[in-house]
Amino acid sequence: MKHFERKNPCLSFCGLNCLLCPMQLSGHCGGCGFGSQSCPIARCSLEHGKPEYCSECEEYPCGKYDHIDEWDSFVTHQKQKANLKKCQRMGPERYNEEQVKRREILDRLLAEYNDGRRKTLFCLAANLLEMEKLNSLLEEAEEQMHSFSLKERADSEGNPLWYPLMMQYLAASPYGKKYGCSTFEDLLSCLKRRQELELRLIREILKDRAVVLPAKRYTMEELEFSIR
Question: pTM of the full predicted structure?
Answer without folding.
Answer: 0.62
